[in-house]
Structure formats: C-alpha cells, structure tokens
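Friendly challenge for the regulars: who can give me the structure tokens for this chain first? No prize, just bragging rights.
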Amino acid sequence: MATSSLAPPEVPMELHATNRDKLVKSLRQQLSELTRPLHGFVLLQGGEEQTRHDTDHAELFRQESYFAYLFGVREPGFYGAIDIATGKSILFAPRLPAEYAVWLGEIKPSSHFKERYMVSKVHYTDEIVEVLHEEYKEPGKPLLFLLRGLNTDSNNFSKPAEFKGIEKFKTDLNTLHPILAECRVFKSDLELALIQYANDISSEAHVEVMRKITVGMKEYQLESMFLHHTYMYGGCRHCSYTCVCATGENRILIVKLDVAVLHYGHAAAPNDRTFEDGDMALLDMGAEYQFYGSDITCSFPVNGKFTSDQRLIYNAVLQAHNTVISTMKPGVNWIDMHKLAERIILDSLKTGCILVGDVDDMMVKRLGAVFMPHGLGHFLGIDTHDTGGYLGGLERPKEPGLKSLRTVRELQEGMVITVEPGCYFIDALLVPAMENLETSKFFNCEIIGRFKSFGGVRIESDVYVTSNGCKNMTNVPRETWEIEAVMAGSPWPLDKSSIPSENGRGIK
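First reply, four minutes later:
Bragging rights claimed.
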C-alpha cells in the first residue's frame, strides 16, 4: 500500500503580500524613469466560475494566474486593487445572495477575507467605483493600470478588468503587463518552497507509478495512480497540465509540431492504450499545489529492463539532460543550452551508428531538430509555461527546433526553468530529412530502420538558477540502473552501495 513521507504545508499569505510589494516597487521605478506621477491603482479581475457548455454543471474553479500571484484568492468573482502611492491592497468580493447559504455554505463576512488574504481593506464588487474614488487623493479621474498583454506561449491576450462605471476612470492598458510578467519570472523563497513541494510530491508519485506499472495495464491507469497519490497524500487538487502517459508508438504523438506543444492524453488521444512487453513508457505529469506547479517527465521500459536500443537512446537524452544542468548558471544563454543538448544527442546517435558524418555539419544543417523538434525547456511557476519568455522585444528564432524555444533569455538567479531534452523517431520529420539532398548523407538507413516504431524518450526536471549554478528540484530515478532497481522493488532513494552499476561494481 502506498504511503508518503510528505504532508501538505501551510501557505503563508506573506507570499502574495511580497509579490504585491515587488510589483509596486517595479512599477514605481518604471513610472519614475518615465517621469510619470506615482499614483493610480493596479486593478485586476479574478477568474469567474465556468459551467460545462450550456449545463448547470460547474467546472472545478482555478483562479486566474496573475490574480493568484498577487492575492492568493481561491474563490471566483473577486477583483483586487493596489494603490501605487501607498502600497495598500483592496479586495472586492462578490455580494452573494441569501440563497447561497442554503446551497453552498456560509457567506463569509468581509473581515474573513481581510484576515485570510492579508489585504488592507475588503469591499464588495458593486462598490469599486465609490471606493476607488474615495481612496484617490489626486485631482481628476483616478488612473487604473489594467492588465493587457500577449502570452507568447498561447498567443492569447490577458483580459483587462471590466466593471460597471469604468468610464469614470482613466485607464492604462500598456504599462502593467510587461512589469508584472517580469516579476513572475524571479521567484521568492516562499514561492520556491511551494514549487519544491510540488516537485517532491510529484517525484514521489512518479516513483510510485514506476513501481506499479506492469505489462497489460492501460495508460490511463498510470494517470490515475499519479493523480491519486498527489491528491491523497499531497493535497494537490489540481494538476499542472493534462497528464501525458504515452507508450509504444503513442510516444510519437507527444510532439505536435507547431511550436512543439507537448500533446498526448487529450480528448482525441486519451491515455487509453494497453502496455505491451517491450514498450517504453513516457510519462509527463506534474502536480500543482496552491497555484504553484511542477513538470516532470520520466521514460522507462514497461517490463522493467532496458534493451540495448532503449539504453542507447535513453542514455543519449540523459547525457544531454545532465550536461545542460551541470552547465547552467547566471549569464548562460538558453539558445546555447538547447544547442548543447542537440549536439550531445547527435553525437550519441553517431556513436550508436544511427548517424554518420561530422556532427558540426549536422548542427549547421539543423539535424538536431529532426530528433528534438521542441524547445529545451520553459519557465515554471504559477503556470506550467510561465510568463516572461519573450519580454523586452526579444524575437523568436526562425530556424527549425530553435523556433520552438519558449524563451531565448540569459539565465538569471531566481529563475525556475525546465530542462527537458528528448529524442524521437517521427516519420513526418525523418522521411523528409532522409530524402533531402543536404541531410540524407547523415543517416545510416539500415540501422535507423530498426527504430521506426521506437517512438522516443524525454527526460524532464525542474531547475532553479542559483547565484553560481543551479539546483535540480526534481528527485526521481534517472540512471538506467536506478530505474531497473526501483522497478524491481528497491526503495527510493537507493542504497547505492548495495546496487550494482552497469560495470558490475557497487555504486559508492
């Protein structure tokens, strides 16, 4: 029977108060540099509860991410304001009808939300106009800084607050978004603690799944195990994203080639294949705790033993994963890290006689994108693909593979970013490359045919950039001998002195 050494931690609301202070400081600095007055209000609208299509079935609510970042409010229907001049925060709660208490529980007083969310004041949403006019100490209409800007991962725009009477205010739709998005890039110690917890419980759940998988099971059973463990023992009601539980040829489906959105497990491919002996499993699953997420991918053989071909591809990806993490530190450019991972994978494929020729030439011809069409990683925080990848006029590269990068920034202390190299054998990419006059020379057609139905391998960890390097926040078996030992029943972490390595000696 599964157990856990973890317990859901209390979340101090100082976390969100610190986020508000950080925003006010950054916004004041920006306004000062532009010689603009230091007054007005940041105003955000929280998320609304949604129903399933035209029914009265309420979907499980999850707060809008920017609102969650600043206020930590779990309930729908709220607005939040921050006074730029004073730093004071105001929540506006929905005024609930008396019938709410009959069907949905106690109607909490304003004092409850003031104390719970550590804000200066709480009023009702139908009082926004009156309250903000009273709080504004300058002549003329109060200025509202509203949130509107492009999410470069989804190509959707954030929604500025809307309410009755907004015409009685001046509004600024351009200043807030880049500043607030940049604030979210750099995590506080309190944020890091939640991301670490999400990683801890997700790592534990991945190990539990690894132990219990057997030939003949369904992919969705692994998803169910993971979700159960993170909720039962970790208090994680939400998942960071839809679980990817891909085995066999389904591993090819995990790469959707327009901007390399990692897909499988969605409605059209619902984690429903049966495991067969000899399959490799690729499990991309991460829990979310109190808005902060994790994103972890493990790849391993369903039967618990790597074949020589599986070991070759797996170790190519693992070497790329480990080398990138050992190289990461402030000042390192993320494009360079992506190319480093590509080079290591190509060199390993050449060593395994899948490719032939000069690796430098392969890099020039962007052959790495044939095997790893997605980007190396992405910022992680309140959103799985967190904000800030292309702020400040940064442009997305146009070359194959590189165009799928979710950021091209230099690493800085305080960033949390995923490292997720992969190697896939996808006909839609391999066939054109093998027919192309400039790239066909690199392929050993006789050997590569052996991998036609292999699918692929991805290894993903969540990494925090420190002042002089980085810290891997994910703790799962990575070496092939570790995976085989855990799948055979050994505890995790392993007692390395008792486990033979691949050369037959104990690990010291």
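Residues 153 and 194 are 23 Å apart (CA to CA). The first strand starts at residue 41 and ends at 45. Your move, everyone else.
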